[in-house]
Amino acid sequence: GAVVSQHPSWVICKSGTSVKIECRSLDFQATTMFWYRQFPKQSLMLMATSNEGSKATYEQGVEKDKFLINHASLTLSTLTVTSAHPEDSSFYICSARGDRGVSPLHFGNGTRLTVT
Amino acid sequence: GENVEQHPSTLSVQEGDSAVIKCTYSDSASNYFPWYKQELGKGPQLIIDIRSNVGEKKDQRIAVTLNKTAKHFSLHITETQPEDSAVYFCAASISNNDMRFGAGTRLTVKP
Prior knowledge:
heterodimer, A: mainly beta, four-stranded antiparallel β-sheet, 0% helix, 53% strand, globular, B: mainly beta, six-stranded mixed β-sheet, 11 strands
């Protein structure tokens, strides 16, 4: 089955530093990947849609300069949280779907970010 | 845009009983409805999905029903087991684009 690998699974960083999270589709090509943020006991909040070879599309209220997205290949998208602050601490999840037909959305296992 | 509502927010059942989670959606153009199971500290995993040209789909102990007229769909889990305990999310989308998720249901199966 389709596998989406997300790395790291958890990270602790100091305020003001930047953190990069990787999302890879391991056995399929994904022109489009999605990044979500999830607060404790809440649903997934779509942050942005990552498009291979073009700029990401951000949801309203999400700062594109703070959450940098790069989708340089058909199997890799990265989310960089720049100048992280404690309020950026959260669970970040990526997802991807295959490019053929109407494919299901597959999720990575998430990254727990803690900013101290 | 699409709005998905999910009920109940928490559900506790005894092992062996059935569990039903219900969702409604607002956009009649939505045609793809997946269900995801999320265990603690992990990403959501697709457990079953249904498209609008089908009214019901079953996979072992899991079934999903769709009522397009009423714009609601439900997840049914029979013979529940403790390992079914997790948070379940429904979602709706138009041809797998712009997927919107329900708020989630925390299912607890008591042994």
